Recover the amino acids of this structure.
């Protein structure tokens, strides 16, 4: 039965969800609460999940899955009724988001469209990710298996993460590679996907510089490796960064 305490808690969660949309979505600037509740699919899907999750916890048959199914049809976001979600989750746009049965999401997490918190294989028990607090997960990212994503982590768009992610770590690529955080404190969710570190570009740049150094050493030793002088003047290799990290951050940093 619904008591006054349950209703009060549901109202508080709803206010928190709407506030997170106002704070993290630039498109919500100047938009009223009623409009967000009626037109923001991420907020609607989260509200439906909180209802279906409580029904699931109380052992109500069929109805939790029915609520989740209707929510998926209306919003394009699929959240299993058993998934555990903390405070102030914000799902931006949301189309194609899938959150599996044993997934656990902490507080103040931001998820963009196309994200999957999925399992691997047909094992039973805990088989979906556990996401810490204040995590940002970029568009199209896939987090697979019973991995743990630490607090304040950032998952780059279209990354495929199959291993644990430590706190305060940025992960990019397929499979996901942890890269060093630049140390810049970002207020709110870090949605800057342009200035992410690129380990492949860094490795290619290092190889290119090493080739130039070796060519210079060969010339100092008398020309070509077989001792003869080269017929043409040597040309130093020019290394191009695969993804220049220039321009103003779209996240406002």
């Amino acid at each position: 039965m619904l008591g006054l305490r349950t209703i009060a808690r549901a109202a508080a969660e709803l206010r928190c969800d709407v506030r997170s949309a106002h704070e993290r979505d630039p498109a919500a600037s100047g938009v009223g609460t009623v409009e967000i509740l009626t037109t923001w699919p991420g907020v609607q899907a989260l509200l439906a999940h909180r209802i279906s999750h409580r029904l699931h916890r109380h052992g109500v048959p069929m109805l939790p899955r029915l609520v989740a199914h209707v929510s998926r049809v209306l919003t394009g976001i699929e959240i299993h009724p058993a998934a555990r979600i903390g405070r102030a989750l914000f799902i931006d746009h949301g189309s194609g988001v899938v959150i599996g049965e044993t997934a656990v999401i902490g507080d103040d997490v931001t998820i963009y469209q196309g994200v999957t918190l999925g399992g691997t294989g047909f094992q039973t028990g805990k088989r979906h990710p556990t996401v810490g607090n204040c995590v940002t997960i970029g568009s199209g990212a896939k987090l697979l298996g019973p991995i743990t994503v630490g607090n304040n982590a950032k998952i780059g768009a279209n990354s495929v993460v199959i291993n644990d992610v430590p706190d305060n770590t940025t992960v990019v690529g397929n499979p996901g590679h942890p890269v060093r955080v630049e140390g810049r404190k970002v207020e709110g969710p870090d949605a800057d996907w342009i200035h992410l570190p690129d380990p492949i570009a860094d490795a290619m740049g290092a190889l290119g510089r090493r080739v130039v150094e070796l060519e210079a050493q060969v010339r100092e030793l008398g020309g070509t490796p077989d001792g003869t002088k080269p017929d043409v003047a040597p040309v130093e290799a020019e290394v191009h960064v695969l993804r220049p990290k220039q321009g103003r951050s779209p996240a406002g940093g």
User: Anything to note?
Assistant: The chain has a mean pLDDT of 83. The first strand starts at residue 78 and ends at 79.
